[in-house]
Design a protein that fits this description.
Layout (H helix, E strand, L loop, with lengths): L2 E5 L2 E4 L4 E8 L6 E8 L6 E6 L6 E3 L7 E6 L4 E6 L8 E9 L2 H5 L4 E2 L3 E6 L1
Length: 123
Amino acid sequence: QVQLLESGGGLVQAGGSLRLSCAASGRSFSAYAMGWFRQAPGKEREFVAAINWSGGATDYANSVKGRFTISRDNAKNTVYLQMNSLKPEDTANYYCAAALGTRYRLKNGADYWGQGTQVTVSS
């Protein structure tokens, strides 16, 4: 069992930055691919970014590529999402996710989800 707790959301102006954190509890954090998804009001949840167990490989949605960076610290059981050049369309509830295995598996359905943290970008 893995529990995920997100933090770092908030209100920011367009062009600004935020850093989300996701602290994981439970065993074998380094065995999990980790990622971020988001869901805006009235829309389906969508993939944002994923990182493999070592941090050596990442994937991004086209909409955030070049602006967002995912990273992890296995010693701290934490995954991060650095969000730069934020746009109003980035406004959503952001969810941390974990999947045992590869980041490809995570993109198709995570094993564990956090409760979410709200990010609001004003124009």
